[in-house]
Amino acid sequence: MGKLRELLNDMDGGNCALPLALEAMGERWSFMILRAAFNGVHHFEEFQQELNIARNILSNRLSRLVDHGIMAREVMAEDRRKVRYQLTEKGIELLPAMIALRQWGEKWGAGVPSTPVLVDARDEQPIGPVTLTAHDGRVIGYKELLWKHRAELQPLGQARVRGEGAMAPPVAAE
Predict the structure, then answer these.
(1) C-alpha–C-alpha distance, residues 66 and 163, integer Å
(2) Any bridge partners for residue 86, and if so which?
(3) How far apart are CA 163 and CA 136, in angstroms?
(4) Which end of the chain has the smaller Cβ count within 10 Å, N or C?
(5) Beta strand residue intervals within the chain, DSSP E
(6) Quick check: 4 and 171 in contact, CB under 8 A?
(7) By three-state DSSP, how is residue 135 classified?
(8) d(CA 13, CA 30)
(9) Could you give the CA distance from residue 126 to residue 134 in angstroms, rounded to a whole number?
């Protein structure tokens, strides 16, 4: 009997939300638009100027982000020709993914820390790395993960004990 793993050919998101998330976000420009929105950019002209993006590509990506509920489009009452784009709650929840990608890029891409530095508003100190945490807050790594069918999940304390505390090998390592 083989190890359980994700259905890797599930491209419509029936059993995994990753394909749906990638469909909503698309490609590089969508992430760059989101980064601009997180930095306070709200208007079409501002996005175009800040990102140096072609109007047709910007229009397409903004429409896609609005269609997927990541950004909201509001026509300004004082000037009906002007439109304001605002992150929705759904869009704001992409912040940890955006930060994780930035941190990964700092480590493996550019090799140098980005500037400006994102800090905690209370202490004005740099934020820590985005990590995976277990249900109890423990930081866990790749080798401490395994896949289970949702129907196999049991309440805490009733889960099977793994042999002598050994962790399952990573499922994708075959």
Answers:
(1) 49
(2) 72
(3) 21
(4) N
(5) 71-75, 83-87, 132-133, 139-140
(6) yes
(7) coil
(8) 20
(9) 23
Average pLDDT, 10 consecutive residues per value, the chain (174 residues)? 60 69 82 95 96 96 96 92 95 94 85 84 95 94 89 80 49 46
Cα 140 from Cα 87, distance rounded (Å) = 30
User: Distance between CA 13 and CA 7 in Å, rounded?
Assistant: 10
Q: What does pTM read for this prediction?
A: 0.77
Residue matched to tokens 């998101």: 13
Q: Is 52 helix (H, G, I), strand (E, B) or coil?
A: coil
The alpha carbons of the chain give a radius of gyration, in whole angstroms, of: 21
Q: Alpha-carbon distance 17 to 152, whole Å? A: 19
| Residue 5, both tokens | 């793993």
Q: Which domains does the chain have, with CATH numbers?
A: 18-110 (1.10.10.10)
Q: Are strands 132-133 and 139-140 parallel, antiparallel or unpaired?
A: antiparallel
